[in-house]
Amino acid sequence: MVEINGHVDDGFGAVADAFKQNFEEFPELGAGFALYVDGVMTVDIFGGIADKSSGRPWTDETLQLVFSTTKGAAAICVAKLVERGALAYDDTVASHWPEFAAAGKESVTVRQMMSHQAGLAWVDAPLTLDDLFAVDPIVAALAAQAPAWEPGTAHGYHANTYGWLAGELVRRVDGRSVGRFFAEEVAAPLGLDFWIGLPESEEHRVSTLASMPPPADASEIEQMMAIMGPGTNGFKALTMSGAVLGLDPDNNPFNSRSMHATEWPAANGITNARSLARMYASTIGEVDGVRILGEDTMRAASAEERCGPDACLVAETRFGMGFMLENETVPLVGPNGFGHAGAGGSLGHADPDSGVGYGYVMNQMLGGIAGDPRTIRLNEAVRSCL
Question: Among residues 17, 30, 67, 182, which one has the fewest Cβ atoms lying within 10 Å of its Cβ?
């Protein structure tokens, strides 16, 4: 029996019950969940094991790599620059990053880039994992790359490249790397435990990811092959044409210090549920006197830009300016919610209608593209309490 620790306000017991049920019914290993409502933290709970091999427990100090949930943090950085007037979504990317104009990309807009329409979900240049850790080689490759489709005519999930594209845009406009910008402009004002590029001093707090279990049946295998079988757009986007592989328990690059230390703004954010929920709560209202983005800014950033079949994920996806929007693939608390899910199950989002800021992190990855059953259960519990 897993002991659930933390804090739950009166009236939110159903959320704690749902969190506990996840440990009982799914192969949950260690996890945290937090909820803000109208700027006030109402739930902050955690339990389980942070490292399976040592038995290290999950505590209120545990941190977790959250894969693509990081993309919401990068989207907030770009939105802050838009709010300041330093750039606009309808600017061409090349007006801020001149080298990007190569290979016919001179007319690609920030709007297209942020909503996965740029056709740059992978690069043809052969890059190693070390090249990706170094950042400069992948940024140069993206600048030189010809789009895989005419920008603006389709959208396909830029699973990894989104982060380097957004990150380089932030650097070109502001001068700071996206990790430093996020640390100084978002994490510091809100007091977040959230990094894009983790300091070595915090490494001991990070839990160990446990890889996804193998597909349970033939239909799951067929679905997986359709999305990321050899040669598919999904394979090229999700693995950077094979550079990001090795997700077995003994050789997972996302558990390495090199991965944690670099700035991989699409996939290596390290945080906890409390900070995810607090960050999103601050996009729709004040949290302890701090609102990180204004209402008009968030309305523009979270408006639907693309919806339909995804050229990389095959399924239908919905995007705003870097944010995933509510649909069957990523069910959120409300229909006007915005945020981002991460591979294996993590989720952070805001729901402006209910005033909710939400964060769920875990170290046992599950598969599937139709919504993680753990967050679906948590969503239902949250709704029942509001």
Answer: 17
